[in-house]
Design goal:
The protein is 56% helix and 8% strand. The protein is an alpha+beta fold.
């Protein structure tokens, strides 16, 4: 871990995010050179300095934007078909990703990533559908719940039995939220190491009683560790399934509230893209979200989901036929 940390710091120096090391014969010989080094250090040091109190959010945000291309290039750099830097090391390298502004900075990176893909014609400009998820998912979910009613499997059967009163509600008013809970129970992953129930648990945390929120988040982090999810970035939905009262994204010991479950899931997706951090256990569920949001297949960008999962593509096809 320490060796990888040193390596990324070396790459940050090479990319210009950190000032060059000054030692021995390399120490600046003139006051002019020294001033230049100090200015350089001050310009970007706000991103890595543990003493965050010295910098206001405006300065940090501006510097974060300045280094976007260099940082993201390092994050997706590969050698011998393997990524040089893990998302965990990347996050550990930036103190500014350890406070409450972290998610807004990751969303900024996401926009830069997508803009670059649009410029390269990998994503069509008119196919960006972030608003689609929040505004139109409830309509799409009606098609999905028709699929669910005919679906088989122990997990889906248990889900339908437990939520039968909601499934029978007039005008299918609960289909939007029910479909989010049913999605990971329906999709069949290539990874047989985890049950669908475990996949659903990893996709987002559901806490019925807000009084249990902090304890459940703490225990959920431990659960994710057992699922080999080292970078813990996840959604929390609070309240009974038909009365979700709060929606959060949790990352680095901070939780940020969002206006709806859809907005929280969309934001979590964007942060995963910015960090190239797809949890293997529920990667196929995120691929489905990726296809819905951007119509971007797997393996088209090193930041997005790379592995193809037939279950996600098959569900998209099935929904188009409804």
């Amino acid at each position: 871990m320490y060796g990888a940390y040193r390596e990324i710091r070396r790459k940050f120096r090479k990319a210009g995010i950190l000032p060059p090391k000054q030692k021995g014969k390399n120490i600046a010989k003139s006051s002019e050179q020294s001033a230049e080094v100090n200015y350089f250090a001050g310009f970007y040091e706000c991103l890595v300095d543990p003493d965050r109190e010295k910098y206001n959010d405006i300065i940090v945000g501006a510097r974060w934007k300045d280094t976007t291309e260099a940082r993201l290039d390092i994050l997706i750099k590969t050698e011998s078909r393997r990524f040089v830097i893990t998302p965990e090391i990347y996050v550990e390298s930036f103190e500014c990703l350890k406070d409450q502004s972290c998610m807004s900075m990751l969303e900024s990176d996401f926009e830069s990533i997508v803009d670059k893909l649009v410029a390269a014609n990998k994503i069509k400009k008119d196919s960006r559908k972030e608003k689609f998820f929040e505004l139109h998912w409830p309509d799409l979910s009606k098609k999905f719940m028709k699929v669910i009613k005919d679906a088989r499997g122990a997990e889906i059967a248990a889900f339908k039995l437990e939520n039968d009163h909601l499934l029978q509600a007039k005008n299918n008013i609960h289909d939007g939220i029910l479909s989010l809970f049913a999605l990971p129970l329906y999709l069949l992953s290539n990874n047989k190491s985890y049950s669908k129930t475990e996949v659903a648990e990893a996709f987002f945390l559901h806490v019925e009683d807000v009084a249990d929120l902090d304890n459940r988040i703490a225990s959920h982090k431990e659960t994710l560790e057992t699922y080999s999810v080292p970078l813990q970035l996840f959604v929390v939905l609070v309240g009974p399934i038909d009365k979700i009262s709060n929606s959060y994204v949790v990352f680095n010991n901070f939780k940020k509230a969002y206006s709806s479950p859809y907005k929280a899931i969309e934001t979590c997706f964007k942060c995963h893209v910015a960090l190239r951090s797809w949890p293997t256990i529920c990667e196929h569920v995120w691929l489905f979200i990726q296809l819905i949001l951007f119509d971007l297949p797997a393996n088209k960008s090193l930041h997005f989901v790379l592995k193809s999962h037939a279950c996600a593509k098959n569900l998209i096809l099935k929904l188009s036929e409804e």
